[in-house]
C-alpha cells in the first residue's frame, strides 16, 4: 500500500493518537493515505469512529507486536 504520511503515536494515551492523526490528516489531500501506529488499546475504537465521522475510509488495521496499525484514506 502506498502511504503518503506516517504518524507514530506509540506510547501516547487518549486523546493524543487522535489529535496527532487529525493534525496529520489536515495536511493531506483527498485520496491520500495516512498510516498510524499506536499502542493505546482504545485507539482501535477511537480511530475507527473518528475516520467514519470525518468522511475518511479506514482501509485496514492490524496488530503487530503490541502495536496497532491503521491505514486511513482521506475523504
Which key phrases capture this entry?
35% strand, 75 residues, alpha+beta, single chain, Translation Initiation Factor IF3, TusA-like_sf, four-stranded mixed β-sheet, 2 helices
Characterization of this structure:
The chain has 75 residues and is of the alpha+beta class. The chain has a single domain (5-73), classed as TusA-like domain (Translation Initiation Factor IF3), CATH 3.30.110.40. The chain is 29% helix and 35% strand. It is built from two helices and four strands; from the N terminus they run βαβαββ. It has helices at residues 16-26, 43-53; strands at 5-9, 33-38, 57-64, 67-73. The chain has a four-stranded mixed beta sheet, with helices on one face. Strand 3 and strand 4 form a beta hairpin. The longest helix has 11 residues, at 16-26. It is globular and about 30 Å long. The chain starts with a strand and ends with a strand. The relative contact order is 0.26. The model has no long low-confidence stretch (mean pLDDT 96). InterPro entries: TusA-like (IPR001455), TusA-like_sf (IPR036868). Belongs to the sulfur carrier protein TusA family. Residues 7-31 form the UPF0033 domain. This is Rhodanese-like domain protein. It holds the Pfam family TusA.
Amino acid at each position: 500500500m502506498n502511504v503518503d504520511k506516517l504518524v507514530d503515536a506509540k506510547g501516547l494515551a487518549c486523546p493524543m493518537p487522535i489529535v496527532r492523526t487529525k493534525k496529520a490528516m489536515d495536511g493531506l489531500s483527498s485520496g491520500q493515505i495516512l498510516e498510524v501506529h499506536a499502542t493505546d488499546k482504545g485507539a482501535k475504537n477511537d480511530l475507527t469512529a473518528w475516520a467514519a465521522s470525518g468522511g475518511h475510509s479506514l482501509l485496514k488495521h492490524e496488530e503487530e507486536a503490541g502495536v496497532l496499525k491503521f491505514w486511513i484514506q482521506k475523504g
